[in-house]
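ugh ok fine here u go
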Amino acid sequence: MPDSFESFWAVYSNLVLTLGTNSLLALSIYLTLSCGMLAMANAAFMGIGAYTAALLTMNAGVPFPVALAGGMAAPAVVALAIGGPTLRLSGVYLAMATLAFGEVVRIFILNTEDWTGGALGLNGIPPQTEWWHVALALGLACLVLALLRRSKVGRAFEAIKLDETAAGLMGIDVNAHKMLAFVLGAMLAGLAGALNAHLTFFIGPNEYGFDRGVEILTMTILGGIHGLMGPISGAVILTLLPELLRSLADFRNVVNGLILVVIVLFLPRGLWDPARVRALLGRGRA
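structure:
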C-alpha cells in the first residue's frame, strides 16, 4: 500500500497540489463577486504574487514563509493603488478596466527582462512548495472566509451585492467594503501564485493573461457563489476535466466546453447550491 501511494504521489502530486492553488484562486474572485464586483484582475494579482515570491527566493535568498508573505503583500499594495479609480466603476466597465490592468501587468513583465526574464520567464525557481503548505493555506483561507461571511463585514458584502444604493442609505461604507474585498481577493490570488511558482519551478508572463482570468472566473461561476464549497468544487472540476478527457485528444476542449454550457444552462446557481442541497436532504428524511 505505501509503495502504491508513493507511485501515485510521484505521478500526480503536482496535479493534487494544483487543485489546492486553483481553489485559492477561485476563492479570491469569490470574494469580489460576494461584494457585487465583477473584477477580472485576479490573474494579474496571481502573476504579481508569483514573480515577487520567486524573485525574493532566487535573488534575495529569503526564507520561504517570508517569500509567501511578500507574494501576498505586493498584490495587496497594487490593489490598494488601483482600487480607488477602478472600483468606482461597476458591471462590465469594471471587468474591462481590470482586464486592461492585467494586460498592463503582462506588458510590464515582458519589458523588464533584467528582473523577470521577459518573454522567457523565470526558470529554476526553488521547489519549496510542499503539500502541507497548500493544505494549510487553503484551510486558513476557508476558515477566515467562513468567519467573514458570518460577521458584520460579510453581511455588509451581501447587502452591497443585493443593492449598493440601499446599502449606502443604511449607513454601510460601500467604498471601504469594496476596497476590502478587492484587497483580500488580491492577497489570496498572490498567495496562490507564490505557491504555484515554487511548485512548477517556472513562470512566464503568458500564464497570467486573459485566458487565466477567464478560467478563474469560470471556476467560481461553475461551482456557485452561494457558499465556500462552490468555488472549491468548480476549481476541482475544471482542474480535473483536462486530465479525465485526455483520451479524447483534440476533442477534449470541445467536450470541456459542452459540459460547462450544460451546467450553466441547467444549473444557473452553480453546482453547489445550499438551497438545493437542503431540499434534497429534506426529501431524503421524508
